[in-house]
Design brief:
Blueprint: H1 3-7, E1 10-15, H2 20-33, E2 39-42, H3 49-54, H4 83-101, E3 106-111, E4 114-116, H5 120-127, H6 130-135, E5 144-150, H7 154-157, E6 164-167, E7 175-179, H8 180-189, H9 196-207, E8 212-217, E9 221-223, E10 247-254, H10 260-271, H11 276-289, H12 296-301, H13 304-308, E11 310-319, H14 322-332, H15 338-345, H16 353-364, E12 369-372, H17 376-389, H18 394-403
Parallel strand pairs: 1-2, 1-3, 5-8, 5-9, 10-11, 11-12
Antiparallel strand pairs: 3-7, 4-9, 5-7, 6-8
The structure holds zinc ion.
Residues 66, 68-69, 71, 74, 76, 79 line the site of zinc ion.
Length: 404
Amino acid sequence: MKIWNQIFDKILVLSLKESEDRREHIRKEFQRVGIEDYEFFDATHYSSQELIDIKKTDKVYLGPLCFRCGQKRCACENNYLTDFQIANWLSFIRMWKHIIDQNYKFVLICEDDIVFTPQHQRIIFPLLQKNQLRAYKVRFDLPLLIGMGGAYHPHKHLSNEMSHLKRQNVMCNPCFCLNQQMAKLFYETYHIHHTSDHFMHIEIPKRFPFVQHLMMYPWPVYELSFVPGMIKFKSLVRPKGQSRRKVYQDFLIISPLQSLQTTLFTKLFHFLQIPSHVNYQVKKVDMTYRNYYGTLNEYLLMNEEEQEKYMFLHTYLFTYGEEKDKEMIEKEWNQQSFYELVCKKYQIQKEDYYSFVQTYIKERFPKTSIVDLSSFESCEKYLKLLTITLQRNKNVERMYQLLS
Ligand SMILES: [Zn+2]
């Protein structure tokens, strides 16, 4: 049917190259509804190098606060941007650029698991006629996006009401159409701080009042993957079993020195000449408020999955300086088995241990603050930060007042 290509000058299906079963579904579905001229747009895979690279930049917000509600601890269904969600972003960013580069004016964008309802023709074709859109006061020179469907919902999909458009910000990633102005606005303003659908369908229309975000009713399209009892495709985009939540922690205190684990505060406060009763308070507070607190060795010995579970607001590296650290490690080596376990796990030689952990910290926790235990100023600064972070606790506040 020519009508599809009269309305849209491009039809793009976002799909992973590897998802042959989904592509086969779309080929059949498009044939059924008469879409002949379309293109598969290869989606970014969650294990791609592109994704690994962008995660190292400031463009992606990776916590520790929940990206949905900004809280430390919350009940949101997922509280950090997963690789799947970031990959989805990268696909859309490339797609917006493609639309701009190719100078497409009006594009239909579909995911690869959609189905058109039996009444889609009476809804889509008349509503997208230019004179009809003008009747809705649509301006073609301003960003325009029209949502056509989402998760299956009998009231929205099967209703026999008159077809119409509504100005509404609704998530509709499975199927929507947009003009080039819209693609440009997305491309020029994006920041990966929330999911791509939230950005496109909620954030942008809110931020820019001139954006025209409409929904088609009844919804002419639904996603097959979310209809109960229907075929489920092998999911290549959502890694199975991957946790969608991370555990927020205030601190990761890291030190190559094993002995600092239990005696850190004692040493620190001894160094700062704090009376012992204050010392006790701090210990108590520490016991109550710490969630993860250990040396780097303990972290290194966790398995990958456990390590991945945590997001830390503060990472502190405690050190006495390379020379002294190395000296202490040498002394502790035989008393503490952790050093050897770490060397064994990461297949490194004893003499490479120190440089290994330095590199590891730089890569894994690039924002780590260094607390030089041999300098009073450095310790004091750390103590202040610690106090601010734990300010909810009156004991710490009182303790700090005692100190200052
Ligand atoms: Zn949340």
